[in-house]
Amino acid sequence: MPEGKKPAEDLYSAKTHLHQPVPEVSTVNATALPADAPEGTLPSEVRREIVTWEKLCEAIKASGKAYNMEMITKAYDLANKAHNGVCRRSGEPYICHPLAVARLVLDLGMDSESIAAALLHDVVEDTPTTLEDLTAAFGEEVALLVDGVTKLTKIQFSNIEELQAENLRKMLLAMSRDVRVMIIKLCDRLHNMRTGDAWPEQKRRDKARETMEVYAPIANRLGILNVKEELEDRSLHYLDPVGYEEISKMLSERAGEEFLARVSGVIELRLKESGIEGATIKRRVKSIYGIYRKTIMQNKSFDEIYDIYAVRVILDTLAECYSTLGLIHDMYHPLPNRFKDYISTPKPNGYQSLHTTVIGHEGIPFEVQIRTRKMDEQAEYGVAAHWKYKEGLDGHDKLDERLAWVSQLLENQRVSEDSGNLLHDLKSDLLPEEVFAFTPKGDVINLPTGATCIDFAYAIHSAVGNRMVGCKVNNRMVPIDHIVSTGEIIEVILGPADKGPSRDWLKIVRTSEAKSKIRNWFKKMRREENIQEGRDTLARELRREMIFIPDDELDEFIGSCCRRLRQNNAEELYAAIGYGGITIANCLPKLKEEWQKRKSEEGKNEQLAKVDLSKVHATDGVVVEGFDNTPIKFAKCCSPLPGDPIVGFITRGFGVSIHKQSCVNAISSMKDPTNAPRWVKAYWADSVKDSYKAGLEIVALDRNELLRDVLSALADIRVPIYTMNARQVENNCAVVSLTIGINNTEHLNRVVARLSKVKDVLKVTRS
């Protein structure tokens, strides 16, 4: 390392890129801001420093570690050639992005293979280069890292949620084999968020939301807290720029750095006087998103947040940590209930430290974090510390323990068989807030906030959860859906060995682990019951969706859709629905598609023959074959309009009821042998000029003068209104139901198009 340079880790701060200028060569934040950037500005607001190959080489040399420069150079040459001539939205050459990602990977202390994979991470996805090419050039290790980061762009999915879930599943699977995949992906997302101003507005918000919900929590779980905090801050800047600016302004108005500098000096002097030598003292200001969560989301005032400012004391031994805690409490007044011992009870991501909040002599509260050097390395770099501090894959046993949650999540998903659950389970399992409860023997159980006693029981063992009949909290009986709080001692009361869980528990439990174990029990122990339950539930939902299938034809219909739902046969699908492995909501879209496909095929096969309209008379604009001037009424179930293919049903007591040919009630009735003879062919007369009633439903953002604008639009095109009803619904929306007069389907389409142009109208549908 060049003389006079501070070690990289001494300069490391998650907020460096937001609150103060950044040295040209330092840490993960090196690419965030040029050194002359104004204080408190975002990287996107000033000229970005572009990482070049020469700068990357300088940084590799300055790291002092022995890297395989031959491999890294070869990776750069291949990436540079593959991306040649391609530019990013911001206008800079595309190769700048892989170089910046490689630099971030380097700053986290990763190995040569990781840097090479970072340089190559987009070549398979965006260029003709294949994985086979990478394997031949760099070996299987680098190729597998690149494959883990590559998105599934070539596969067609029915909706964007399924695509997201499958991409995430692929990445988590690769991560469970090699955590470096996720570290590269986090660095990729970090640089994308730093340069996100080039994205269109909607894409910026979508990426920010995905980053906040998925990638920042994963970075937190991996213990890479600096990356996690920067991802959160940058996402917040896109999602709520006003809230971001408010908090940024509050921080800049307070002289926090001066206050922390004074406090650090006092603590350092006291430690030396007490014989504790060699302590390193760092200072930090809480991240903007951390403050945002407490001020905006928890409705606290700025002065009610006690850990905005923090001093970190880093020592050599564990004994010194606890001695220093005593000294701090002697120097300053500690706040009650603000002491946390994460050394004896580490967080799930491996974080260890003593936290205490005290009041300074100026009356300003601040947090003191006390930890050993090894704990600090772990807190700064998380799982990446294995490579930064030369353990690498040699420390794989520890890594396997740290990454057990990934394998557990994927196993839960394998049992669940429902890709839509992955995002939900990941979000609930990675919640940053956690509670710590104890068994009567003193074992610590970590659970996400909101977890119940049932989650607690299943966290101990699946057999304990399955046999649970009640529980005691602090020696007092409570309901089994009691929400667990930190520090509670929970005793699970067990029933007989053959006791099993209740299906209702799936609606109560919070963790994916508990859900998976409950589903597993039902899958193994109640197959026949699951099949019947699933079949009844599915048939009921199909009827609710106006899909009428005779009971003896249901199995055949469901069997024809099974492949699309990743099941071998109808029984397997029924069983999966019965034990909760697949949700009805995920099945219905594909079943509806199959139903519509069958209806259209039946419609082609059962074309009704045309008659000579000149030989018959029309009634209410409708010609019914075999009848002259018969009474006509239009069915309310499908409300046919001129232009819709129609069919007639001879009623008992009132002429002929007219339905659309595609009406599910009509199709179902035609298949009934007792009703089939009463269906007759019908047509619209060519001279139809009458006005027909049609129902419309308008969904719009709720606002003043919405009804006035809707009525004005209808008046402009001279459409009569028979009835109108408006109501508020959730998500700040309103629903307006109208019955209007129209001439035919073409007229109706013109009315719908006009209403769709009214301000804040989201959707107009025929009801």
Automatic annotation (TrEMBL):
Q: Name one GO molecular function term.
A: GTP diphosphokinase activity
- Record-linked CDD domains: ACT_RelA-SpoT (cd04876), HDc (cd00077), NT_Rel-Spo_like (cd05399), TGS_RSH (cd01668)
| Annotated metabolic or biological route of this protein | Purine metabolism; ppGpp biosynthesis; ppGpp from GTP: step 1/2
**What highest taxon heads this organism's lineage?**
Bacteria
Which Enzyme Commission number(s) are listed?
Answer: 2.7.6.5
Q: What chemistry does it catalyse, as a reaction equation?
A: GTP + ATP = guanosine 3'-diphosphate 5'-triphosphate + AMP
Q: Can you cite an annotated GO cellular component?
A: plasma membrane
Q: Which InterPro entries match?
A: ACT-like_dom_sf, ACT_dom, Beta-grasp_dom_sf, HD/PDEase_dom, HD_domain, NT_sf, RelA/Spo_fam, RelA/SpoT_AH_RIS
GO BP terms: namely: guanosine tetraphosphate biosynthetic process
Instruction: Give the family from UniProt.
Output: Belongs to the relA/spoT family.
What functional role does this protein have? In eubacteria ppGpp (guanosine 3'-diphosphate 5'-diphosphate) is a mediator of the stringent response that coordinates a variety of cellular activities in response to changes in nutritional abundance.
Name listed for the protein in its UniProt record: GTP diphosphokinase
Q: What is the lineage of its organism?
A: Bacteria, Bacillati, Bacillota, Clostridia, Eubacteriales
